[in-house]
Write a structure and sequence with these properties.
single chain; 180 residues; alpha/beta; 32% helix; globular
Length: 180
């Protein structure tokens, strides 16, 4: 019965995730806690599992047929726990009505970037998890707009960035443009 309920019944898991975040915040929470966002890929064969397509798979270090989840973890001196998750639905999947219908993807589910999914989790669970920092790997740190959004939300962050990221001192005028 429980297997059928979890795997096939139509139920809303959001209240359970909210309760999990509340309990993690109570039991592990401390002001110096860290929210950790991590996209993770799972190699999959076929094309019928929700979100499966050829996309970057960090585990393999290459593009491969896989599903991608974005996870929110919480870390403090008291311990650590996974708190929330989102299945990434690639743009091609989001636009393909028949494929969505065949896989049982609800109509209200729309395309969101991995970073937008992380921001949704921050909005929903961040207030329940006392923290000083938001952390993530170079995939999370890659887009400038994500780092700026965290800054506007007054979140301190430590995000890795790819080694080829160009940076400059914002207090210094940019170099003169020479046509390239």
């Amino acid at each position: 019965g429980i297997q059928k309920f979890v795997g096939q019944a139509n139920w809303d898991h959001a209240p359970l995730i909210g309760e999990l975040a509340r309990q993690v915040g109570q039991r592990l929470g401390e002001p110096g806690g860290v929210l950790v966002f991590d996209p993770s890929a799972f190699v999959k064969q076929g094309k019928k599992s929700v979100g499966v397509q050829r996309q970057w798979c960090g585990r393999l270090g290459k593009v491969e047929n896989c599903q991608v989840g974005v996870y929110l973890g919480y870390v403090s001196h008291q311990g650590h726990a996974l708190v929330d998750f989102r299945l990434f639905l690639p743009r091609e999947w989001a636009k393909d009505r028949q494929r969505r219908k065949d896989a049982g993807v609800p109509r209200e589910v729309r395309f969101h970037t991995r970073h937008e999914l992380a921001l949704q989790m921050l909005d929903e669970q961040g207030g329940l998890l006392p923290h000083r920092w938001v952390a993530g790997d170079d995939e999370m740190g890659r887009p400038y707009w994500f780092r700026r959004r965290l800054d506007r939300l007054h979140e301190r962050y430590l995000l890795a960035v790819p080694s080829n990221t160009l940076i400059r001192d914002l207090q210094v005028d940019p170099p003169a443009y020479f046509g390239r």
